[in-house]
Write a structure and sequence with these properties.
Elements lengths: L2 E5 L2 E5 L3 H11 L11 H22 L11 H23 L10 H9 L1
Antiparallel strand pairs: 1-2
Helix pairs in contact: 1-2, 2-3
């Protein structure tokens, strides 16, 4: 699943997936899949790297060159904080198999849930 955020009139692809979560864990030592609720101050620690690696994964998925400087991610987040936070649950639902990938049939999704 790829979502888009806008920064300076550019549509930027975002994909929160294994890669993004792994890189955030390596960088911050915070696991977003641990099942523990993240405190507000911890959320501040993970949002910027999560968006950075999500943008990188989104560009890779769309076979686009990734040339966003890490320093710009705070400003991209400033412009899209609410939208980014609202899209996160959708990515996690998709990773848990609760939302089908585009092109995936309901039958395949239901079969995967049973196993």
């Amino acid at each position: 699943m790829i979502k888009y955020i806008t920064y300076k009139k550019q549509e930027l692809p975002v994909r929160i997936s294994f890669y993004a979560l792994k890189m955030v864990k390596e960088e911050t030592d915070k696991s977003l899949l641990s099942g523990k609720e993240i405190e507000n101050d911890e959320l501040l620690e993970v949002l910027e790297p999560l968006l950075f690696y999500g943008l990188k994964a989104g560009h890779e998925a769309e076979d686009k060159d990734f040339n966003i400087e890490r320093e710009k991610v705070d400003f991209i987040l400033d412009a899209n904080l609410g939208k980014f936070v609202k899209m996160l649950p959708e990515f996690f639902k998709q990773m848990r198999g609760e939302v089908a990938e585009p092109g995936e049939s309901d039958e395949v999704q239901a079969t995967e849930k049973k196993n």
